[in-house]
Design brief:
The chain has helices at residues 15-25, 36-46, 51-58, 62-70, 82-91, 94-108, 140-151, 156-172, and strands spanning 2-3, 110-119, 130-138, 184-195. By secondary structure, the protein is α+β, with helices and mostly antiparallel strands. Helix 2 crosses helix 5 (82-91) and helix 3 crosses helix 4. The longest helix is centred in the last third of the chain and has 17 residues, at 156-172.
Length: 196
């Protein structure tokens, strides 16, 4: 059983899913469209030509989407600059993403690197809690659970607990070998990176 704190810094929360997104983007075989016009054209293709659907996703009017498609507008307003980029990257190369998820969940697992407070022994011993840099591959079973949690829109607390359990099992318990019942404390995350 992992002891997770009731309050964790924001970097340990939403960043988990952001890191998964970034790890998937690193696998793209072609760069995503860069110009606003190309991004809107791509999003319209994905939405089967529905300017209404794209406008809703971007939070703009249908007319604005039509202006970008036609080339009448080329540079997004400041409040709109990130939305087309994020939507395009979220929908870019879905097969590459699906293959990476499948490989991670069945054979490859994930690599999790973090700097956090870990402890599993009494104070004064070498196992006492302290800040540690840990980088370890987690099993495909845990990778599958973490990816499924993201797809099911799990809460940040649930995702944090899954990552904590995966790290504890892979790094401290050595996947059940000899230390299966070891209680690991995991909190105060400074850095968290995930890769496929």
């Amino acid at each position: 059983m992992i002891s997770t704190p009731t309050r964790c810094p924001p970097c340990s929360r939403r960043k988990l899913f952001d890191n998964l997104e970034r790890a998937e983007r690193a696998l793209f075989t072609r760069p995503a469209p860069k110009s606003a016009r190309a991004q809107v054209k791509f999003l319209l293709t994905r939405a089967k030509g529905s300017t209404t659907a794209v406008a809703e996703r971007l939070g703009v009017s249908r007319r604005t989407v039509e202006r970008y498609r036609s080339g009448a507008a080329t540079k997004p307003q400041k409040r709109l600059q990130e939305a087309p980029v994020q939507e395009t990257e979220a929908q870019w190369q879905p097969q590459v993403r699906a293959q990476a998820r499948q490989r991670a969940a069945t054979s490859g697992g994930l690599v999790i690197s973090c700097q956090a407070y870990f402890g599993f022994g009494p104070e004064g011993s070498s196992d006492a809690g302290r800040m540690r840099d840990v980088m370890n591959a987690v099993s495909p079973a845990y990778a599958d659970l973490i990816l499924a949690a993201r797809e099911s829109r799990a809460t940040d607390d649930d995702a944090h607990e899954l990552v904590a359990e995966a790290i504890a099992d892979a790094y401290f318990r050595k996947e059940g070998g000899g230390r299966a019942g070891l209680h690991v404390e995991f909190k105060d995350i400074e850095r968290l990176d995930i890769s496929f």
